[in-house]
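Appendix B, Record 12. Input sequence as logged:
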Amino acid sequence: MNAPPTTSMLRALPAEHRERLMSRAREVSFPQGARLFEEGGRADRFWIIRTGTVDLDMHVPGRRPAVVATLGRDELLGWSWLFAPHAWHMGAATTSPVRAYEFDAATVRAMCQDDPALGLGVAQWVGGIVVHRLGSARTRLLDLYAPYGSGGFR
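Logged structural output:
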């Protein structure tokens, strides 16, 4: 698989765009074991993790949710907010206490619509993360449930 995209907003976006987004952030914290969102729920916010870890999981019929990734410092938590119908594609739970910057999705989408350069930068940043995470999730699910593991892409 290819190397992961730049997941840190600090490295993915120009300073001007980072500053505009961060002006809309609010600091939040969550205890270990907090369920942040469920697959299929309304994606109305997203986070950039400052400290701690969060597991992303997917519903598997007849089994416990399968953990497909663990996110940590400087990583984007949540991408479903950017793409209609704005419903979570995975679930998320903290595996340690977490501090994060939280963003209101509607506000950021409006900022992106009003400033096409910002919108393009955010879309490329988030899109790269989506592609990487879906590939990782596929590999992880094959490792968990396929008879011979992932075996790589064919």
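Strands lie at 26-30, 35-37, 45-51, 54-58, 66-71, 76-77, 91-94, 98-104.
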